[in-house]
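Minutes, methods subgroup
Present: GH (chair), OT, SY

1. OT presented the first of two proteins processed in the latest run. Sequence and structure tokens recorded below as shown on screen.
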Amino acid sequence: QHLADCLAVVEPMARQLRRGVSGQSSAAADSLRVLDVGSGGGLPGVVLAVMFPHWQVVCVDTVGKKAAFIRQVAAELGLRNLAAEHARVEALKDAPFDVITSRAFASLVDFTRLSRPLLTPLGVWMAMKGKVPTQELSALPDDVAVFHVEPLSVPGLDAERCLVWMRAMDKDRR
């Protein structure tokens, strides 16, 4: 179920990023840098690295064994575009990223606040959530714009899922 959950984001990610969500042309979208925050055992980061071999995917988790597992997966599957960091996201120095994603990591406020220094100026956040997180959305600061909340259908799973797409707004874009 966890793999199916992560595979369900592949088509929406490809579609959104083809539209130039990150401010890049569709050709540039082929070589994105993606950060998976709180990756755990590598979901969705490993799935994204497999499905988008031209993307550079970095998974970050505070548990060393989980980061080591992701490194082993990368080695076993020959995924040169996948890396893992054992660190807190706020301590990560490997920036900037075009897309920062999370699945079951934290509230939207904490996710955006902790990872904001790592986001490129035209980058986007994509949070995988269950039900539409209405309270979390209303708690976001004014400088975080939600530009799309996309319902997801996960084959074989009778549960609500959605993607929350956000971007940082500087003073000039508000």
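2. SY then presented the second protein from the same run.
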Amino acid sequence: PIRNAREKNMISYIFFIILLVIAAILSILISVTDFRRRIIPDAYLFPLMLIGLTLIAFYSFPITLQSAVNGGGFGYLMSAIIGAVFDYKLTKQNPDACAPIGMGDIKLLGVGGMWLGTNGLAIALIIACILGTLWAKNKNQKYIPFAPFFFIGGFLSFITNLFLL
């Protein structure tokens, strides 16, 4: 019986690691796609969301399921409201203007909120905005691919929540 329990734990840890590796690959694919084409495909985003919910529901994760749901809802609503306000203001001034926040970015913040919770999402956003601004100023860019910077901020936020908070 003890050996059987150890085997179950080993399989559980292997599955956990496989899910984290797949999440890392999806994060890289999302970042590269956003950087090259300025879109965030749902085909990468939704599996990332499902992996996050699976890890939170079945493994001992740094945040609770309630915090994940709150963070996801907060991230989605906050970015949708900010995007709508910017879109309204820009199109009022210039009808041909492009929206500064796309739906992919909005969904990305919802997924990020699920992985990080509201506190982690706030830390990730601050880091992402600072890094994105520095990159844009250095490269003299008008548009910023937000996903790569958000994933860097999200990873640093996750490490901060895991070890410091």
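Chair's summary of item 2: Residues 136 and 144 are 6 Å apart (CA to CA).
Next meeting: continue with the remaining queue.
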